[in-house]
Amino acid sequence: MLDELPAFMTVLEAGHVPRIGRSKAYELTVEWERTGGRQGLPFVWCGSQKRVPRDALVRFVELALTDVTSA
Prior knowledge:
CATH architecture: Orthogonal Bundle
Strand order of the largest sheet: 1-3-2
CATH topology: Multidrug-efflux Transporter Regulator, Chain: A, Domain 2
Radius of gyration: 12 Å
Oligomer: single chain
CATH class: Mainly Alpha
Structural class: alpha+beta
Distance between the termini: 26 Å
Number of helices: 3
Shape: globular
Strand content: 5-15%
Number of domains: 1
Helix content: 40-55%
Order of helices and strands: EHHEEH
């Protein structure tokens, strides 16, 4: 399923994958930028718009699943 996603998504589109809302998805991109990429939802700037690379989203979801299963 994740392989069928486009190479780059809007933050809203990326938020649909882990089933989080728009506000939370944007909050996670701010966290990623604020922490220098240590936490949050990875993104790249395309001009003045944020785009989430598919590979980064896959890693984000896998990391979230790892955190849940190891708790």
